[in-house]
Amino acid sequence: MNYLDYSNYYFIGIGGIGMSSLAEYMLHINKNVEGYDREKSFSSKRLINLGLRIIFSENIKKINLKFTDPKNTLVVFTPAIENNNKILNYFISKKFKVVKRAELLSEIVNSSFCIAIAGTHGKTTTTSILSHILYNSKLKFTSFVGGVIKKYKSNIIKKGNDIFIVEADEYDKTFLKIKPNIASILNVDGDHYDIYNDIDDIQNSFKKFTKNLKKNGIIFHNSNLEFDGISFGKDSKSDVRLINLKNHQNKLIFDIQFKKKLFKNIELNMLGDHNALNAMVAFMIAISLDIEPNCIIKSLKSFPGIMRRFSIELNEPKIFIDDYAHHPNEINSVYNSLKTLYPNKKKLVIFQPHLFSRTKDFMSEFAEALEKFDKIALLDIYPAREKPIEGVTSQSILDKINNTNKVLLNKNDIKDLLSNDDHELVVSMGAGDIGELVESIKKTIIDQNES
What we know:
Layout: E1 8-12, H1 17-28, E2 32-36, H2 42-49, E3 53-55, E4 73-77, H3 86-93, E5 97-100, H4 101-109, E6 113-118, H5 123-135, E7 141-149, E8 154-159, E9 163-168, E10 182-185, H6 199-210, E11 218-222, E12 230-233, E13 240-248, E14 251-258, E15 261-268, H7 273-288, H8 293-302, E16 311-314, E17 319-323, H9 328-341, E18 347-351, H10 356-361, H11 363-370, E19 375-378, H12 394-400, E20 406-408, H13 414-419, E21 425-429, H14 438-450
Parallel strand pairs: 1-2, 1-4, 2-3, 4-5, 6-9, 6-10, 7-9, 10-11, 11-12, 12-13, 17-21, 18-19, 18-21, 19-20
Antiparallel strand pairs: 7-8, 13-14, 14-15, 16-17
Helix pairs in contact: 5-7, 5-8, 7-8, 9-11, 11-12
């Protein structure tokens, strides 16, 4: 029985950014959908508003009777769910078909023309920009996004099924199930060493991913990566070049040299030099889909941005930027962009490490990336799916930071930190629940100025 042939779908961990878009899609194609999650989130609240029932306790008696028939119900779970979860084990013990999110997602996107965005960093931004371009074109598509696009206030865009756009996530080797017509590889860095043995193992998995291309498929890859396909970058050896990049009035302006054509004065309604490269990848893919260049350029200019991706939350009374950065290279990218944009402003970073395993693997790299800021405030590690690792704490990072202006604090201390702070720029970073603090940080900054 194919995964799309069931009547009922039960999602365990339904509030996650990847699970919620998949659940919404199944609801959209008239399936019965229900789910469980540990706590409420932006995504779970959206699903509830769409009429979907979600339970927030591991109480099997609360499962709707409709979803207790193994013949008609597919159970989908996220790897973030612990093995001892009572809801998960109930379905396993009753011999339901239980699959990871990646298995259902790949069956959906492989059924039609598929565009897969891969890479250690930048997947969500690139997918979001490309989705906005296609939304303004005549093409019929559905896009699964790993973040919330501001204009659409959603992590899924549904405008038909001729094309599927998906983030090809390397975690748990999910992307090896996807068979795209067009793929991009933005970058390959070390990460997820709870899954991969080393950087060579990661690189080999990306190489395997390139072999998944359907017949006559196209792959766009960063010019510093050795793959067959069309290369992109800032250097002269790239097949597609980003040139004349500059920042102007909270926008990026750049030119793209693609084959013998030069597209000039392209505006992107975002900041961060790394986002210009992400936009260029979306531009190339859109060109390969025969979308008119003028439509692409207008779409880039009107792109509304993404929550938690170099999101400028305040310009006054001081600058406040929120970002999803959770890897040392991402922190470096954010810092370099801030240094270019605001060279003379004193910068305070509030960082929440994500995962004990990642913190352990990149302890020194985190310290080196964070110590460049004028002041560093660290929250406790957000564990997500993991158990604590002995000796791995935020204090461990703090001890390695070669900057005396540093502090370890909990979430309740942030208000006091900001109320007595004279830094002109504040940036919050992390992939955990620090994003839920954005509004309170904004309010504290505003109240500080008014007092």
